[in-house]
Amino acid sequence: MYINEKEIEIRYAETDQMGVVYHANYLVWMEIGRTSLIQELGFTYAGLENEGYISPVIDLSIQYKAAMKYGQKARVRTWVESHGRLRTVYGYEILHTDGTVAATAKSEHVLVIRDSFKPVSLKRVDSKWDDKYREIARVTD
């Protein structure tokens, strides 16, 4: 399985008064991981946007396991969990530097035409990108 890893330095602004990372920041880290994965594969999300497409999140699940705190570093592991004709599911693990799992998550996305929100297949937009996702996805349909 192909996994991208990205290190994040936890900033004070990402924490609450107890110095614990506020839960919504994990979603930002997931986006950073997803963008890093896409770039590492040789593609860009900005390129899709320039062509008139966007990829909204249509479902998200996250399980918090162990709190992260200011001053620590998080390692975000991101992979393509599944990739089908219209939907792509990304998997994530957010880890402490010692390997302790802080959170696990999945986000489901669909590619749409920006102006109409009409779903479109990645294969139609970028067949090389679609082929790469099919190659590395844990599950394809």
Automatic annotation (TrEMBL):
Per its UniProt record, what Pfam families does this chain match? 4HBT_2
Entry keyword annotation includes Hydrolase: yes
Q: Which InterPro entries match?
A: 4-hydroxybenzoyl-CoA_TE (IPR050563), HotDog_dom_sf (IPR029069), YbgC/YbaW (IPR006684)
Alphabetized UniProt keyword annotations: Hydrolase
Which GO molecular function entries does the Swiss-Prot or TrEMBL record give? fatty acyl-CoA hydrolase activity
Keyword Hydrolase included in the entry's annotation? yes
Which family is this sequence assigned to?
A: Belongs to the 4-hydroxybenzoyl-CoA thioesterase family.
What name appears for this protein in its UniProt entry? Acyl-CoA thioesterase
